[in-house]
Design brief:
Elements (H helix, E strand, L loop, with lengths): L1 H28 L6 H10 L4 H8 L4 H15 L13 H31 L12 H34 L3 H32 L5 H25 L4 H20 L4 H28 L13 H30 L14 H10 L4 H21 L8 H37 L15 H27 L3 H26 L5 H23 L3 H8 L1
């Protein structure tokens, strides 16, 4: 009898071990078990039949075994209570908002430094001063193409970086970012070759001018890709330092008698090399702190491409939208034009100065998007299923408060720009570099308004991206781009003056802010579903 009892104990022990082993296999094959039928289907997919179940476990069918396996699964699941989340202190929230606002200002600072250098030093990393109008035309087209060609790659670079950093895949981050840079550079080269070939078949510019254009486009494309690598590390101050250093290189080379084109080319090369080297040093220093664990799931290139596709198209559409009014102005023939596209220096000066009105709104955009997301992350832990409508109403109130705050910040920014312009007019040395002549004041005034409205639209766009609805933002951008171009062409051709291209920009940004605001207000009642999508 003792032998029999020992045999039964051994058999029971082996059966228990087999059940535990099968449970592990089932969970590994399907980690989201919902019920007994789900377990039974998984067991059968692992090759178990009723006869094998009876031989091994002594049970008549797979479904009887599934009941026991599911019970073991439920017993093994830990259900720790969610710790209560306390409201953030007001001074902590204020500190985070101020940090986001300062981050947005730093993002705009390289642009401010470049414009200030053109006003004070009459030279920058890339600028049209001291160029002939034909060369300025080539430079303007090259700048537009470089932003459009690389805009999608820079946005995708940021998205892929944050995804892989979250997984602490340091080697893959470095390889992926270098791969994106190579693709961006390759796209610029392909576009450059296409322009040269097209110009040789359908001559639009002299070969020397077309060659100058494509070389400048490639160099600027490399510069934007290199700058994007530092931006994803949130080292905007490094971008400002590199911009200042590169401007000084261009200035001193020009002052010591070198050609302005050579001086700017050397400045761009220094900025590009410095950005890539800085990124490499900072990134590798960060990765040393990461835990080097085995990769549980291999991240595929197709997954990264799918995750960043919306951001890629956003980059292309955004830069096309920002530059489209300039192309309309440059193609408006108020008199004889040597080429079908002709640079308009007065229009460009007004647009450049209008960018100063965008500085504070950009900081506000960064701050308010961060505030809304933080508020939402805290509020979802305090709202029960029955009070979801209360959450939607509260979020609508938060959104409207942000819009009101944004309008106040934008008004302050525009007043400050006006005051700065009035002060600059008192200095004769600056009078030729500020928008006070001809069509410049008209373009500056309306472009300032348009850029402020654009910043509000970007707040809506970034909010939709943050809430996992990028397709709505892309649709609004595409419609607004079409409105910008259409209204701009109609206004310039009917009124017969290129400065009315800014009317197209105003129509585009108003269309964008209206469409995105309507989309955001429609999304807010579904905030519970958005939280599920973001989980």
């Amino acid at each position: 009898m003792s032998i029999a009892r020992g045999g039964r104990a051994t058999r029971t022990s082996r059966t228990g071990e087999a059940r535990e082993r099968l449970l592990r296999q089932v969970v590994e094959a399907n980690g989201d078990l919902q019920d007994v039928m789900d377990v039974a289907a998984t067991i059968e997919s692992l090759g178990w039949s009723d006869r094998r179940v009876e031989d091994v476990f002594g049970m008549p069918s797979v479904f009887d075994l599934a009941e026991d396996i599911y019970a073991d699964f439920l017993a093994s699941v830990r259900t720790d209570p969610i710790p209560p989340r306390h409201d953030m202190r007001w001074y902590h929230l204020l500190r985070l908002i101020a940090a986001d606002f300062f981050h947005g200002l730093l993002f705009a600072l390289p642009m401010v430094v470049s414009i200030a250098a053109m006003v004070m030093l009459h030279i920058s990393i890339w600028s049209y001063q001291y160029y002939s109008v034909a060369q300025a035309t080539a430079l303007g087209i090259a700048t537009f193409l470089s932003f459009v060609v690389t805009g999608g790659f820079t946005q995708a670079m940021a998205t892929i970086y944050y995804v892989l950093v979250g997984l602490q895949e340091g080697d893959l981050v470095e390889r992926s970012l270098y791969q994106i840079m190579r693709w961006g550079f390759g796209a610029a080269v392909v576009i450059a070759i296409a322009i040269v070939v097209a110009d040789s078949v359908f001559p639009m510019f002299p070969f020397s001018l077309a060659f100058f254009m494509v070389v400048y486009m490639i160099m600027l494309s490399l510069l934007w890709l290199a700058y994007a690598s530092l931006y994803v590390l949130r080292r905007e101050y490094m971008l400002t330092l590199l911009t200042v250093g590169s401007i000084l290189i261009a200035y001193f080379m020009w002052r010591f008698g070198h050609n302005v084109i050579l001086a700017q080319a050397m400045a761009m090369a220094a900025a590009t090399g410095g950005a890539v080297l800085s990124w490499l040093v900072i990134f590798r220093r960060q990765t040393r702190k990461w835990q080097h664990i085995g990769r549980i799931v291999k991240t595929r290139t197709s997954q990264l491409a799918y995750a960043s596709a919306s951001y890629f198209f956003y980059g292309i559409l955004y830069f096309s939208f920002v530059f489209s009014d300039r192309l309309v102005a440059w193609t408006t023939a108020t008199s004889f034009l040597p080429y079908s596209i002709w640079f308009r220096g007065e229009y460009e000066l007004g647009m450049d100065w209008a960018l100063f009105a965008l500085i504070l709104p950009l900081g506000a955009t960064e701050a308010f998007v961060g505030y809304v997301i933080r508020w939402l992350m805290v509020a979802q832990h305090r709202v029960t299923e029955r009070n979801v409508q209360n959450l939607a109403a509260a979020m609508r109130a938060v959104y409207l408060r942000c819009v009101a705050g944004f309008v106040g910040v934008a008004a302050i920014g525009m007043v400050m720009v006006r005051i700065g312009l009035a002060i600059a007019r008192q200095y004769p040395i600056l009078r030729n570099a500020i928008p006070i002549h001809g069509v410049e004041p008209f373009v500056f005034s309306w472009a300032s308004f348009a850029y402020v409205v654009l910043a509000l639209a970007l707040f809506n766009v970034l909010l939709m991206f943050s809430l996992a609805y990028p397709q709505l933002a892309l649709r609004s951008l595409l419609i607004s781009l079409a409105a910008d171009i259409t209204v701009g062409i109609i206004a310039t051709r009917i009124l017969g003056a290129y400065q009315f291209a800014v009317v197209g920009l105003i129509a585009g940004v108003i269309c964008l802010v209206v469409l995105t605001t309507v989309d955001v207000l429609r999304l807010l009642p579904r905030v519970d579903f958005m939280l599920y999508r973001m989980a």
